Amino acid sequence: MRKLILLAVASLFVSAGVRSAEEMSVDLMQTIEDTNKSLSSNIALSNKAGATSDAKELTQMFADVETYFNHKGDASNAVDLAKQSKDLSNQIVGFVAANNFDSATTAATTLSRTCRTCHTFYKKE
Ligand code: HEC
């Protein structure tokens, strides 16, 4: 039994080593950055159509980020943060639809904080 566990742990390390060679798509993060900026200004301008399409795009992109960290493994924190970001983006779609731009602003602020939290732990440099 102990041998089996050791073997499982060892293979975990090997696969983690291989997987960490895959990089998060920098293009994806750049698009997230641009879309997040656009979202903030669209919310500030009460631009319903613009904010809605930005928030929908972010919802989809964070779903991709979630999948990426799920596959990468050993990054449950990042999976949670990606999921939180996805949920916040989705909530913003709802707030904007209800013309509740105050709540949309609050959610967007929380979203931006979530970016930084994930970068602190998972972005090397
Ligand atoms: C779940 C984790 C996570 C979340 C949430 C996240 N990021 Fe990132 N981000 C990363 C990682 C990891 C990198 C580093 C990618 C690399 O260099 O391989 C990165 C890199 C970046 C970069 C640098 C890209 C480049 O050109 O090198 C920008 C800009 C960025 N993120 C913006 C954002 C913004 C804006 C948000 C929130 C709206 C956000 N990120 C949310 C994990 C995250």
TrEMBL record:
Q: Give the GO molecular function terms.
A: electron transfer activity; heme binding; iron ion binding
Q: Which InterPro entries does the entry mention? A: Cyt_c/b562
Keyword GTP-binding assigned to the entry: answer is: no
The domain of life for this entry's organism is Bacteria
GO biological-process terms attached to the record = electron transport chain
Keywords attached to this entry: Signal
Span of the signal peptide: 1-21
Protein name, per record: Cytochrome C
Taxonomic source organism = Duganella sacchari
